[in-house]
From TrEMBL:
Keywords: Coiled coil, DNA recombination, DNA-binding. Residues 187-326 form the Recombinase domain. This is Recombinase family protein. SUPFAM superfamilies: Resolvase-like. PANTHER family: DNA-INVERTASE FROM LAMBDOID PROPHAGE (PTHR30461), SERINE RECOMBINASE PINE-RELATED (PTHR30461:SF2). The keyword DNA-binding applies. Residues 415-480 form a coiled coil. The keyword Coiled coil applies.
Amino acid sequence: MATATLTRSAGTLSVPTGGMEMTTQGGVCGCHGRPWVDLLLRKSKIVREGERALSIRAQEDRGRAWADEHGYCVRKVWKENLSAWSDVQRPKYDAAMAAVMNGEVPCLWVYALDRFSRKGAEAVVPILGKARVIFDYERLDSMDERDRRWIIDRAENAREYSQRLSYNVRTTKGKQRNEGRWLAKAPFGLVADKETRRLSPDLSPYLCVVKGRRELSPWEVVVRIFTEIAEGVSSRALARKFNEEGIRSSTGKFWRADSIRAIVIHPVYEGWLTVSPGGKSHKSPVHYVNDKGERVRCVEPDVLPDMISATLAARARRVLSGNQIIDNTPVEGKAVHALSGKMRCASCTNAMVLDGKSYNCQRRAAGGACPGPASAWREAIERYVVQQWADRLYRAADDDPLMIAVAERWQALTRPDENAEIKEARAELKAAQAKLDKFMADDAADFYTGRSAKYRIPHKNAAEKRLDAAEERVKELTGGGRVDLSFLMEGHAEATWRAADPMLRRDLLGLAIESVTVTKSPGQGKRFKGDERVSIVWATPEGAEPDADEFEQAA
């Protein structure tokens, strides 16, 4: 059998076909002595209702029959399964046109004008009288002078039909979306009503959980995703947990972190209709906005309470994006000694623990190696730190950053529920600012152009409204009165500490002290000198970066 290599010399092209070799001289088949013809076949991926489209196979059969009837030999078949509209890339069409325009092949056969292009006259004028293109259905030849007007007219008719069809489709889809109809396949965890195309939770059990041997509905999985992400579980950890438990996606595949993220960021789980912006952002759906600039629900009113709440969704997205940090560090028990958890060995940076009457380097106490293990008599170092703590509070003015930090920590200590609410509000403020920043970046990059232009103002207004509401909420929670710290100021701090029980004493020191670092004693039996061996890092307000001035170190 001949090789699959094409060779060209002196205007002759050799083409292997089965067991014999066919050559062409000037566009003529060397085996049969007939000129070459290429076939351009196209069928749209989507066939409109009421439109009869000839299949690719049927088009090829007709093309080959035409070639036999008119004395041509088929050289190449170009097959396309896509639209012929202006914004679609058609590499096969481009290659076929290049071949016939540069004389590589004498003729190009197309089943019909609307299979060739729907760009109108601009697509056919370049070939008229210059390259032979046969439009079989219309029985038109681009090299026939009498067919020129017919080809242009039919091409324009095909273009007008496509324009009208596109307009009708956009109008129909717009009307359906304004009614809250979900036009695509329902997202994971949801099911669409066959008549209304409204969504509702999919409660049909089909996802098997190996551990426990029970069935889960897709909606239960969605609720679990939002809940656990909101509680601080990472998307990667949750995907791993699902896979270990035997939970599979709707396609039966394993869960991945990006699959979890796609569900959390999707507004549809709150009951909102969405559209895909396309391009690089096609995986980040946005709210559909009607002509009045309003968002549209894709669920019935009685189903809305069953969807993911706006509060839970917002919290899950803040945690997922890192705008809200959830501390899930396990706590075995609360320390009661004054400096427990605050002290560090300067040599190895490990904690110092109370052992008898002294605080000692934890690594050294556990039998490990520390180049300069620190140790300090409990009574001496506590007396020194308390004195430094009281003096620092005495010197602090009302607007001192230290006092702001003390106020925040005292509020968290005495009003934990209220403090959690403030943290939630601050996280929402951070997320709202990030949303507005993203809009500004998209706007600067001309994202809101073309079909996306209608979303520009609604998205801008929504981002600004969210930021305004978040700022107002933070102001409301933090500006409703001063925190009374008089018991720690004006020289009262040391007396307050001495009157407190052991647990409160530790908490009081923790209001102003971040950490205490201790160096090794210069010699055994030496008197403890705190100014030489101890450095204290003072507390800073939440979100602030510590300065060098906030460190009080030994001279």
